[in-house]
Amino acid sequence: MRNTIFIDGVNLLERDLEMLAEINKCLFTYGLYISQHKSDVPGEERTCIAIHFDKEKYFEKNSRQAGARRRFTGEKINVADLEAEIAASSPDAVAKKFGISRATLYRRIKESKETDNVVLM
């Protein structure tokens, strides 16, 4: 999603435009750039600065990507079979078998019930 902020009444000199080009080189990798716009009204000498930013690109570049990566054994288990295994032993034992926490076990069961009733472990 691209957004733009306009700042009206700014007149840039030639050296300012050169500096703006250098600033844009740095900002572009973060989904930001600044441009100067002149008024479309004939006879009007107004100019403005436009700051453009792309939220998705910005958050993609600045996201921490925090948290542990999901662990998968590659095994597909039917939800009914997994719930039967939990009933036969304990949720802690089943979670330990797959190397995940009990909370993760229940979260994956919930996610799979919403989609295709197959749990990826």
How would you describe this structure to a colleague?
The chain is α+β, with helices and mostly antiparallel strands and 121 residues long. It folds into two domains: 2-62, no CATH class; 76-120, no CATH class. Helix content is 44%, strand content 23%. The protein has five helices and five strands. It has a three-stranded antiparallel sheet. Helix 3 (79-88) packs across helix 4. The longest helix is centred in the first third of the chain and has 14 residues, at 14-27. The radius of gyration is 27 Å and the shape is rod-shaped.
Any chance you could write out the topology, listing elements then pairs?
Layout: E1 2-8, H1 14-27, E2 32-38, E3 47-54, H2 55-62, E4 76-78, H3 79-88, H4 91-98, H5 102-114, E5 118-120
Antiparallel strand pairs: 1-3, 2-3, 4-5
Write down the overall geometry. Answer: rod-shaped
Got a strand count? 5
**Structural class, please?**
alpha+beta
Percent of sequence in beta strands: 15-25%
Report how far the terminal alpha carbons are from each other. Answer: 35 Å
Strand arrangement in the largest pleated sheet: 1-3-2
- Secondary-structure element string: EHEEHEHHHE
In total, the number of domains comes to 2
Mean pLDDT: 81
